[in-house]
Amino acid sequence: MIATTEISPRDTVHAEPVGIARSLGPSFAERAAAADDSDAFVAENYRDLREAGLVEAGVPADLGGGGAEIAELCAMIKELAHHCGSTALAFSMHTHQVAIPAWRWTHQKAEPVVPLLKRVAAERIILLSSGGSDWIEGSGKAEKVEGGYRITARKIFTSGSPMGDVLMTGAVFDGDDGPKVLHFGLPMKSPHIKVLDTWRTMGMRGTGSNDVMVEGHVVPEEAVALKRNQGEWHMLFHIISMIAFPVIYSAYLGVAESARDIAVELAKKRKPDAHVIALAGRMDTELRAAQYAHAAMIAAAERGEPGPATTNEIMIGRSLVARHAIAATELAMETAGGGAFFRDKGLERRFRDVQGARYHPMRTGAQQEFAGRTALGLDTVKTF
């Protein structure tokens, strides 16, 4: 067993998150290949993250957390990705589920989010996201029963599921005035909730992004945080887009940056020729484009103006980070030469991991339609 980095638990709550992530990185890097080879969730890394105080890093300081802002959280996730892409991506899902209510408390004084944030800070609970599989359309069925709603659903891509405490999700209720998506948290210890062992993938194999089956759990009426029209943008989703996607795409940018560093070290071991020099130049150019696009996403989030215009900027950035991070990693494979084909170098894992950047919302077609409708002054309420 690999020894974990010794960090005093509560003393690190107000430390710089990226510095803590960097101190944990070597241990995470040592475990990364084993998790990838066996499709095993990075449970030991999650225990270290919890012990180090990073679970509550994004909780506002006045509610007991670390008070980290969006740029700090992105830097933390990106640093984790340099060492283990799976840990970074899975933890980005918890991190953005903390950062969204934190933003709502800090900027809107939304009282309903306070109990959840205080729980994260005090108990270090792990939040799960059904995110991309639910998006604007929602999924699952909510049936009205006495005192609440009985939920039946299968939530896919639930990253971190083996160690999650609360699943932040929703289900569709067919009411008299049309289908509504209800939003709520589900306790993962419920006997009506089961994690299915389904995560067998090309990359990001250690994220534990299993399907979660919900069969008959009843959500009390008072636990429903939001009811919205199905298939239409709601302001909450503009807030989600503004905060979540810079955090999530930090993981893919970090994977691409680490691929670049590995490629350079491998290339330096051979006598450079004009072809390798050109490849290295193209690689760094693609990577810089991804970095610039990601910086623009963070800047848009920091302006704190949720709405269609900000969502458009965020989603353009999301597409550009994905495109250029994938291209940079492909060029890293070529720059490194034949050595990149060997698993022990870590490059082929990063090549596989970065492919996940393609699949989060809004995917290319929807994003381009949203951008085009925005440019032409057309309605985007049902474009997602």
TrEMBL record:
<keyword id="KW-0560">Oxidoreductase</keyword>
<dbReference type="InterPro" id="IPR013786">
    <property type="entry name" value="AcylCoA_DH/ox_N"/>
</dbReference>
<dbReference type="GO" id="GO:0003995">
    <property type="term" value="F:acyl-CoA dehydrogenase activity"/>
</dbReference>
<feature type="domain" description="Acyl-CoA dehydrogenase/oxidase N-terminal">
    <location>
        <begin position="29"/>
        <end position="105"/>
    </location>
</feature>
<dbReference type="Pfam" id="PF08028">
    <property type="entry name" value="Acyl-CoA_dh_2"/>
</dbReference>
<protein>
    <submittedName>
        <fullName>Acyl-CoA dehydrogenase</fullName>
    </submittedName>
</protein>
<dbReference type="InterPro" id="IPR037069">
    <property type="entry name" value="AcylCoA_DH/ox_N_sf"/>
</dbReference>
<dbReference type="InterPro" id="IPR009100">
    <property type="entry name" value="AcylCoA_DH/oxidase_NM_dom_sf"/>
</dbReference>
<dbReference type="InterPro" id="IPR036250">
    <property type="entry name" value="AcylCo_DH-like_C"/>
</dbReference>
<dbReference type="InterPro" id="IPR013107">
    <property type="entry name" value="Acyl-CoA_DH_C"/>
</dbReference>
<dbReference type="InterPro" id="IPR046373">
    <property type="entry name" value="Acyl-CoA_Oxase/DH_mid-dom_sf"/>
</dbReference>
<feature type="domain" description="Acyl-CoA dehydrogenase C-terminal">
    <location>
        <begin position="250"/>
        <end position="361"/>
    </location>
</feature>
<dbReference type="Pfam" id="PF02771">
    <property type="entry name" value="Acyl-CoA_dh_N"/>
</dbReference>
<dbReference type="GO" id="GO:0050660">
    <property type="term" value="F:flavin adenine dinucleotide binding"/>
</dbReference>
